[in-house]
């Protein structure tokens, strides 16, 4: 691919991108019914000062408003190729990400844009110095953009997995503390409040959310049900269901909590044994493929050397 052809392709790409941006700006900005009636429904606010506007408009805010139509289009595009909105909101709550769905989509757009930029740079290098085919370069650019969006999804999945592991590790201790508090005569709500205030961790944070919902007027059973759905772990779901049944039917709650804590410890021991078995198999790889061949070489090489000097 010659340099004039590359220059022409780049200029054509930039021209097409500019035309697309103009068309998107003209077609995406339509006055809605809400925007038409909002000035007539707005409340009467205090007049602005005669000395000047009360707010300072920064260049970044102006730039954000200029690229808002493009950003909305990219967000819609990322939404079509990514996970659904309902599932993404549930995953954000499970990962304890204090951002909205729109903010997460903007993060995906930024990751996709970074991947697109990197793909374009690599494609230009391959086109100039390696004479790569144009179809392969286009596929590379598209794959780089998709990889950026997928990397954002993978980071969210990794965050969920790490947080779930921490919750499972914290559960036996939290269950034992609740069992001790209930056995001492405290009601379940008071025991949950005490444990959430005196302990730290991901599970304690979730229990604090439960108690905040209870203080706002929600029944404890409904808050525990939402807690199980929000965390979405089989162990925590059984814990929420067990506490709910014990509250509704009046069964001994301390025994239920101790049984669940012991079950969680047994599950943790089984998981450690499984991980230990996998690590043992992985440890055989350097022994068989590195240490054993070197030992054989050191054992056989002197014999071959001695035989080579024989007449």
Structural notes for this entry:
This protein has twelve helices and no strands. The chain has helices spanning 3-28, 33-41, 59-66, 68-81, 85-95, 101-129, 134-183, 188-198, 202-215, 220-231, 234-249, 253-308. Helix 4 crosses helix 6 (101-129), helix 5 packs across helix 7 (134-183) and helix 7 (134-183) packs across helix 8. Residues 175-300 form the Type II secretion system protein GspF domain. InterPro entries: T2SS_GspF_dom, T2SS_GspF_sf. Pfam families: T2SSF. This is Type II secretion system protein.
Separation of the first and last Cα atoms: 65 Å
| Low-confidence blocks of residues | 43-58
Count of runs of 4 or more consecutive helical residues: 12
CATH class of the domain at 165-267: Mainly Alpha
Give the strand content: under 5%
Largest sheet: none
Q: Indicate the overall shape.
A: flat
CATH topology of the domain at 165-267: Receptor-associated Protein
Radius of gyration: 31 Å
Write the layout of secondary structure elements.
Elements (H helix, E strand, L loop, with lengths): L2 H26 L4 H9 L17 H8 L1 H14 L3 H11 L5 H29 L4 H50 L4 H11 L3 H14 L4 H12 L2 H16 L3 H56 L3
Helix pairs in contact: 4-6, 5-7, 6-7, 7-8, 7-12, 8-9, 9-10, 10-11, 11-12
Pfam family, one: T2SSF
Organism: Jonesia denitrificans (strain ATCC 14870 / DSM 20603 / BCRC 15368 / CIP 55.134 / JCM 11481 / NBRC 15587 / NCTC 10816 / Prevot 55134)
Subcellular location: Cell membrane
Descriptive keywords:
Receptor-associated Protein; 12 helices; cell membrane; single chain; 311 residues; Type II secretion system protein; 82% helix
